[in-house]
Design brief:
By secondary structure, the protein is mainly α. Helix content is about 50%, strand content about 5%.
Length: about 425
């Protein structure tokens, strides 16, 4: 049953509006990371020019440029739309918006001529240029979002259903061809070079379920037993590794949430019944790691006295630092396979509030995807206070996407000490210090 505790908060429509009108670009059909102006015409003037993207400047991941995490945003928003539909709260425009988000993911996986490689984003300056280095996290949320689309919108036009199925198949085909021992199980770059933050196997405990999830999603989409076998090949040995995940690996909200997302996928699909108990144990472990993070972030957010609507500066005028992973063991070079990874450093006025919203959202996701967990009274009260405190319509970054995702999961769960539908609809990261995605 739904909890009836009051939650004075901006309506979900206000958060949708911020995402749709501030962060979503109607031509690329992607949700960008931040805006630098309240003028709708100029809000994306900071996004990289095609010649900058072609040069992989300032880095091949597009970190901090505003087109770093469009796939994370799309995946979360597709799950939001799924949750709204299941809860009977879906606006009339939801199916059309879901199709547009699907188009954006499809564009990122095809526009470069390497079908199945999920680029992080596309600059609207020409509608086709994308950075060469993606990441396992971008692949994870893109696949999760498309899988959610297929389950939540079976009444979508047949062409869209087919597009989604082909997309999951092409991503799995790309991984099967590229993520091999000969390539050190790495996704690689678009130009054929070595990538960073893209290793899909023989990687960390919070990462090893991503590859079997991709193959399992392809099986769900196509019914081809080849993909079920591929998923089993990796999922069986991956689960014991996942069960050993440490607090050090999940010190940050982004990997914590994404590990839980991969676990939730396998729990819901139940493709391998022999893994049920282990998956449940792993999900509880992730919840144990996420809950202290959630509590710390809520406390920090309630103590924050800065401007929740602060703008990020144009990244070209920010100081830049070298990404530590690209520095050679001897420290004699920071060029990684022909590329430099200079990362613009966000101003704290923007980075702190945006990362707080994103972090709280991701921790809510990590806790509430686990059916055995629920928010306690203190967490609900703290979240209520935060939602009363912030005018989300003024936010300029995409931390609101993950916050909306987390709140919708809480509403959907409807368990004791979670959020109530009646009150949440009343009136109304990006981390600068270290990139692991």
């Amino acid at each position: 049953m739904r909890n009836e505790c009051p939650l004075p908060a901006p309506p979900l429509e206000s958060l949708r509006k911020q995402i749709r009108e501030v962060l979503f670009h109607p031509e690329t059909e992607l949700i960008y990371d931040y805006a630098t102006s309240r003028d709708p015409v100029h809000r994306f003037d900071h996004l990289p020019a095609p010649e900058e993207v072609a040069a992989d400047f300032p880095n091949p991941c597009g970190w901090s440029t505003g087109m770093e995490d469009s796939m994370l945003n799309a995946g979360s928003m597709l799950d939001v739309l799924r949750l709204e539909r299941e809860d009977g709260d879906s606006p009339e425009t939801a199916p059309a918006f879901a199709c547009r988000l699907l188009h954006g993911i499809h564009r990122c996986a095809t526009v470069h001529g390497h079908p199945g490689f999920v680029a992080r984003s596309i600059t609207p300056r020409d509608g086709k240029s994308c950075y060469s280095n993606s990441s396992r996290d971008q692949f994870t949320l893109a696949v999760y979002g498309v899988w959610r689309f297929l389950r939540a919108f079976p009444d979508a036009p047949s062409a869209e259903i087919q597009r989604a199925r082909e997309l999951l198949h092409s991503i799995a085909c790309y991984c099967e061809h590229t993520v091999t021992a000969g390539h050190e199980y790495d996704l690689g770059r678009l130009d054929g070079g070595r990538a960073i933050v893209s290793k899909m196997w023989q990687c960390g405990a919070h990462e090893v379920l991503r590859l079997p999830m991709i193959y399992a999603a392809a099986f769900e989409a196509t019914g081809d037993g080849h993909w079920r076998d591929a998923a089993r090949k990796y999922a069986i040995p991956a689960l014991p590794v996942t069960l050993g995940v440490s607090a050090r690996e999940c010190y940050w909200d982004i990997p914590t949430a994404q590990l839980q997302i991969s676990l939730r996928f396998f729990r819901e699909t139940d493709l391998f019944p022999e893994l049920r108990d282990g998956i449940s144990s792993a999900m509880k472990r992730v919840t144990q790691l996420a809950r202290p993070q959630l509590q710390r972030l809520l406390a920090r957010a309630l103590a924050f006295e800065g401007d929740w609507g602060a703008f990020c500066e144009n990244w070209r005028f920010l100081p830049m630092k070298i990404t530590p992973q690209t520095i050679s063991p001897r420290g004699d070079t920071a060029v990684f396979d022909g590329k430099t990874y200079l990362n613009p450093c966000f101003n704290a006025a923007y980075a702190e509030p945006n990362s707080l919203l994103r972090g709280i959202g991701n921790c809510l996701i990590a806790v509430l995807l686990d059916d055995s967990a629920a928010l306690d009274r203190i967490e609900v009260d703290s979240l209520q206070t935060l939602l009363e405190k912030v005018n989300f319509t003024l936010c300029t970054g995409s931390g609101t996407v993950q916050l909306l995702h987390g709140c919708r999961l809480a509403l959907h769960r409807g368990a004791e000490h979670s959020l109530s539908n009646a009150t949440i609809t009343q009136e109304v990261l990006h981390e600068e210090e270290f990139h692991s995605y």
